[in-house]
Amino acid sequence: MKSDSWKPWALLGPSLTAVFFLLVIPVCFVVVYSFWLRAPSGNDIPAFQFGNYAKFFADFFYPSLLIRTIRVALETVLLCLVMGYIPAYFFYRTESSLKPFLMILIMLPFWISFIIRTLSWINILGDSGLINHVFLKIGLIDRPLAMLYNEAAVLMGLLQYLLPFMILNIYVSLDGIDKSLTEAAKSLGCTEWQAFKEVTLPLSLPGVSAGCLLVFVLTCGTYLPPMILGGPGNDMIANLIFKRIVGTLDWPFGSALSTILLGLLGVIVYTYNRYLGISQIFKTLQ
Amino acid sequence: MAKELEQQIDQMVDRYRNGKISRRDFMKYLGIAGAAAGLAGGPFGLARNAFAAKSITFHSWGGSTSEALRKYAFDPFTKATGIEVVDAAFTGMDAFLTQVKASYPPGGEFNLAHLSAVYDYARYTELGFGSVLDESKIPNLKNVIPKMTDTLRAISGGTLSAVPYDYGQTGIAYNSKHISKDKAEKLGASLLWDKDLKGKLGSWGGDFRTNMWYAALHTGQSPNNITDMDAVWNALREQRGMMKKYWASGSELMSLLANGEIYATVAWSGRVAALQKQGHPIGYLAPNNTYSWMEYMYVLKGTDMDVAQKLLNFMLEPDAAIAVALGQNYPPSLDPTKVSMPKDIEKLPAFDPTGKLDGYLFADPKYWNSHQVEWTEKWDRVKAGS
Amino acid sequence: MKLPSGWSLIRAYTILIYVWMFTPIVAVVLLSFNPQQFGSFPMEGFSFRWYFRLAGNATILGAFKNSIVLGSLTAVLTTAVGIPAAMAFVRYDFRGKDTLNTLLLAPIMIPEVVLGVALLLFIRWLQQPKSFVLLLIGHVVLTLPYVLLVVQARLVGIKKEYEEAAQTLGASPFQTFWSVTFPLLAPAIFAGMLFSFTISFDDVTATLFWATAHNQTVPVKIFGMLRNSISPEINALGTVMIVLTVSIPLFAGYISRRFARAAEK
């Protein structure tokens, strides 16, 4: 095996090169900028000081945004899992000839721009949206229900965006499971449910794991659903970063915010990869 | 071969360290060397010559503005000069400034831009992106409302980096089915604090200025010189509790109003005009000292000035300016006493038939820009409920 | 194979999820036929107005072409780069594996605004102008994590013994990959390409910063329209795309069945 040690590096070469030049170096710029100062005109002044970080931790306002972001991300992961596993399992077991079609269908929402898709919820959940319109018409309610501009609406937008990732990740993993294994389990006297619990579920965990990670991380970095569907108190950390970098042209503070977020996510993802990640699950399976 | 190349690169590195060549040439060299050696070298340099054909870029909001300009200014300009106008969309004043700030080389990617607000003219100028127009090369500039050019001139030390193109207001839009005209006019800016409208109010969340401006009017202060800042913040805190949605875009503003989600909000006059044209029951209110602004065609440093000036002159042709104005519902910068305006322009909210713009209050760039960071941060907190 | 008990429940649940996922899409499709610009329900008529407008709108169609070209190139490049990387992570043990795995997932951990501006800072420091190649490689980096995750998840399910068996039978590593691993990996590769195409096609924030005036994509144009109002032409464009993506596979399936039947006769 010794002589093979160059192989993984050769396989990783192109990816690492691209990520190094387009991500690692630029991120170093961000870290450097986080110590700079903003001039009143919006220019950046090279410096080395911790004022931007001090500002973040000065009171509870900025950290609370970060905490809210993590909480919303966890909620999204949980909901995606609940909503996504069964459809993925359906794809795995179905013998319908429509299966490839249904698979393509799941990515179909992406053909409509994210902005338009998110805005579209307003036509459905709004005061004069579809649901309120129907409910008022049949006399179920006498005044429109306020369904928009709260955290639930933000979650709705996030789920609509992220669920396909969860479903496809789980499906791909399920699809790799040899179906004769469940048959074997059942011939040994397992019930359907036991066979699922003992064989299928554990074998699908790599996909679940990948899906959860993806959904979590993507939620932490998104700003459009809170911007369009959220109320004033539903902003997440990415909204703040966008406002500081683009709005006030405060690149130093925006960089400090990004560095903090990146550090936190880096720790989370690294720990995850280390203890719950794909390779770990793979090892326990063997 | 490989060794030779290596030596050449080493020599280049030495020369670069000694400051004999610029970073750009150095990168270019590395790019060529890399490509020659079959490495992943100069991916960023390759496409540069692809656009060697003569062209000038124009950034705007896209949509109806660029359609009108294409027809009445760009196509005639290209026909007359053979120079292509590449028009691109930007997504907002702030995002565009971010792009410009991060671009290289100056004037390479960004030439002309359709920018808004006087304080942004000051920002671009202060950041050193300004150019100096030779006004004698733009004969149509004589038709422009003098107050508009004077305002810009005062910021850039007597010269112009841009030609004013249109103007507008951020007034108050209200649903006339639910709010009577009398009531709106009686309350003025305080309509946005009317208790009856709890849960049916909107405001532009992305801009601290608009919100502070109206809070100043509501508390009886001059927007360009607020003395009792606490009163402003308290008013905004109070307003937050009655707010349905802080909108983030004109598109959202229009759909909120059109669908009856909100009954009153600060609003851009052009958006109100668009809603009125489609028959929605939306009234427009411009209280005393309404927040006014202008838009202008800014020429960024590094641009070929001869080409830019020629293009600006085409853009200031009355046909072009009026077509753009009708497309985006903001009155053109042309003086109505010198250029006759069609009926549809005269009906636009914020239109001034005298061409003097007396009583149009612009945001004082010095006052607002110097407090930008402080007030944005405060506004974010107030908006988030603290 | 017998379907599991409770299958009808599973199916009903899946259908419900589909209905929910497609509600906003259906709204967009319906409103593309609304003659009014600010559509809301109930609709006030039915017209193809926005489709005709779209057909004559060179700006949107040009941006659409840019999006398709960029998305396709991204899909091909990302999978070509991502599969070997996934192989390295799943099939080999080496120092720093966890760290590198985290690193390659980093593009989705960094908010796109930051990545967008940061890359521009680097390019400015190098004193290089932006170009299409930069945009393309940028998109490859952005979509790489999706491909890596999905391909790795599939690879761990493919037993190493298959590959080893092929190799003991005298196949070269490349032959092994091509005739054993690749077919087993196909669903993941397909999913990966689908992911990278759609992510690239739908990306706003980073593209906004990286695209030059010459290669702006549809989402960037839409973002620009937000200030005034988004034209329903965009809804029409989305509808056209959906019809195409749904009908092409159905049509292809129909044709191939026809041919198969003809061959049987």
How would you sum up this structure, described in words?
The complex is a heterotrimer of chains A (286), B (386) and C (265). Chain A is mostly helical and 286 residues long. Chain A is 73% helix and 1% strand. The relative contact order of chain A is 0.13. Chain B has helices spanning 2-17, 23-36, 64-81, 93-101, 118-126, 146-155, 181-187, 208-218, 229-240, 250-258, 269-277, 305-315, 318-328, 343-346, 365-370, 372-384, and strands at 55-60, 84-89, 112-116, 162-175, 201-204, 243-247, 264-268, 282-285, 291-299, 361-362. Chain B is α/β, with parallel strands linked by helices. Residues 36-53 of chain B have low confidence and may be disordered. Chain C is globular. Chains in contact: A-B, A-C, B-C. Chains A and C meet through α1, α3, α4, α5 and α7 of A and α1, α3, α4, α5 and α6 of C.
**Overall average pLDDT of chain B:** 87
Q: Give the low-pLDDT segments of chain A.
A: none
Using the alpha-carbon principal axes, give the shape of chain B: globular
Q: What coarse outline of chain A follows from CA principal-axis ratios?
A: globular
CATH superfamily of chain A: MetI-like
- Count of DSSP strands of chain B: 10
> Strand portion of chain B, in percent?
15-25%
Summarize the amount of helix of chain A as a percent range.
over 70%
Biggest interface between protein chains, with counts per chain?
A: A-C, 111 and 106 residues
Structural class from helices and strands of chain B? alpha/beta
Task: Provide a quick synopsis of the model.
The complex is a heterotrimer of chains A (286), B (386) and C (265). Chain B is α/β, with parallel strands linked by helices and 386 residues long. Chain B contains 16 helices and 10 strands.
Secondary structure elements and pairings:
The complex is a heterotrimer of chains A (286), B (386) and C (265).
Chain A: H1 7-33, E1 37-38, E2 44-45, H2 51-57, H3 61-93, H4 99-107, H5 114-125, H6 130-137, H7 151-175, H8 179-187, H9 192-220, H10 224-229, H11 237-247, H12 251-275, H13 278-285
Antiparallel strand pairs in A: 1-2
Chain B: H1 2-17, H2 23-36, E1 55-60, H3 64-81, E2 84-89, H4 93-101, E3 112-116, H5 118-126, H6 146-155, E4 162-175, H7 181-187, E5 201-204, H8 208-218, H9 229-240, E6 243-247, H10 250-258, E7 264-268, H11 269-277, E8 282-285, E9 291-299, H12 305-315, H13 318-328, H14 343-346, E10 361-362, H15 365-370, H16 372-384
Parallel strand pairs in B: 1-2, 1-3, 5-6, 5-7, 9-10
Antiparallel strand pairs in B: 3-9, 4-7, 4-8, 4-9
Helix pairs in contact in B: 1-2, 3-12, 3-13, 8-9
Chain C: H1 7-31, H2 49-55, H3 58-91, H4 97-109, H5 112-125, H6 132-155, H7 160-168, H8 173-202, H9 205-210, H10 218-225, H11 233-264
Helix pairs in contact in C: 2-11, 3-6, 3-8, 4-6, 6-8, 7-8
